[in-house]
Amino acid sequence: MIIDLILDRQDGASYNPKTFYDNVMEYGATWPEIAYPIADALDSGSEKDVKRELARYIVKNDYNREIIKYIEANKWL
Questions:
Q1: 50 neighbors 77 (Cβ within 8 angstroms)
Q2: Domain residue extents for the chain
Q3: Packing angle between helix 2-10 and helix 47-60, nearest 10 degrees?
Q4: Count of other CB atoms within 10 angstroms of residue 10
Q5: Which of 34, 37, 50, 56 is the most exposed place for a label (fewest CB within 10 A)?
Protein backbone atom coordinates (compact mmCIF):
# COMPACT_ATOMS: atom_id res chain seq x y z
CA MET A 1 0.00 0.00 0.00
CA ILE A 2 0.98 3.60 -0.46
CA ILE A 3 1.07 4.05 3.30
CA ASP A 4 3.96 1.57 3.38
CA LEU A 5 5.90 3.70 0.90
CA ILE A 6 5.42 6.76 3.10
CA LEU A 7 6.29 4.94 6.32
CA ASP A 8 9.34 3.27 4.78
CA ARG A 9 10.66 6.70 3.87
CA GLN A 10 9.87 7.98 7.34
CA ASP A 11 11.84 5.03 8.75
CA GLY A 12 14.90 6.05 6.73
CA ALA A 13 14.57 4.25 3.40
CA SER A 14 16.16 6.13 0.53
CA TYR A 15 13.71 8.21 -1.49
CA ASN A 16 13.58 8.84 -5.21
CA PRO A 17 10.58 10.72 -6.61
CA LYS A 18 10.52 8.65 -9.82
CA THR A 19 10.61 5.37 -7.92
CA PHE A 20 7.87 6.61 -5.58
CA TYR A 21 5.76 7.59 -8.61
CA ASP A 22 6.32 4.20 -10.25
CA ASN A 23 5.34 2.41 -7.04
CA VAL A 24 2.19 4.51 -6.67
CA MET A 25 1.29 3.73 -10.29
CA GLU A 26 1.59 0.00 -9.60
CA TYR A 27 -1.18 0.37 -7.02
CA GLY A 28 -3.28 2.13 -9.64
CA ALA A 29 -4.10 -1.15 -11.36
CA THR A 30 -5.90 -2.35 -8.25
CA TRP A 31 -6.94 0.91 -6.58
CA PRO A 32 -7.12 3.62 -9.26
CA GLU A 33 -9.33 5.88 -7.17
CA ILE A 34 -6.64 5.94 -4.48
CA ALA A 35 -3.44 5.92 -6.51
CA TYR A 36 -4.21 8.07 -9.55
CA PRO A 37 -4.86 11.37 -7.76
CA ILE A 38 -1.49 11.00 -6.03
CA ALA A 39 0.21 9.95 -9.27
CA ASP A 40 -1.35 12.86 -11.15
CA ALA A 41 -0.06 15.29 -8.54
CA LEU A 42 3.41 13.73 -8.76
CA ASP A 43 3.32 13.83 -12.55
CA SER A 44 1.96 17.29 -13.24
CA GLY A 45 1.27 19.05 -9.97
CA SER A 46 3.23 21.18 -7.57
CA GLU A 47 4.79 20.17 -4.29
CA LYS A 48 1.70 21.59 -2.59
CA ASP A 49 -0.55 19.40 -4.78
CA VAL A 50 1.38 16.26 -3.89
CA LYS A 51 1.26 17.00 -0.18
CA ARG A 52 -2.47 17.71 -0.41
CA GLU A 53 -3.18 14.39 -2.16
CA LEU A 54 -1.00 12.44 0.26
CA ALA A 55 -2.76 14.10 3.19
CA ARG A 56 -6.17 13.27 1.66
CA TYR A 57 -5.03 9.69 1.31
CA ILE A 58 -4.10 9.56 5.00
CA VAL A 59 -7.42 11.06 6.13
CA LYS A 60 -9.61 9.09 3.71
CA ASN A 61 -8.08 5.79 4.78
CA ASP A 62 -8.24 6.65 8.46
CA TYR A 63 -4.49 6.42 9.08
CA ASN A 64 -2.83 8.23 11.95
CA ARG A 65 -3.06 11.93 11.09
CA GLU A 66 0.33 12.56 12.67
CA ILE A 67 1.76 11.19 9.42
CA ILE A 68 0.55 14.37 7.71
CA LYS A 69 3.15 16.33 9.69
CA TYR A 70 5.83 14.14 8.17
CA ILE A 71 4.36 14.57 4.69
CA GLU A 72 4.30 18.36 5.10
CA ALA A 73 7.89 18.46 6.38
CA ASN A 74 9.39 16.69 3.35
CA LYS A 75 9.77 17.26 -0.37
CA TRP A 76 8.12 14.72 -2.63
CA LEU A 77 9.05 16.03 -6.09
A1: yes
A2: 2-73
A3: 110
A4: 14
A5: 56
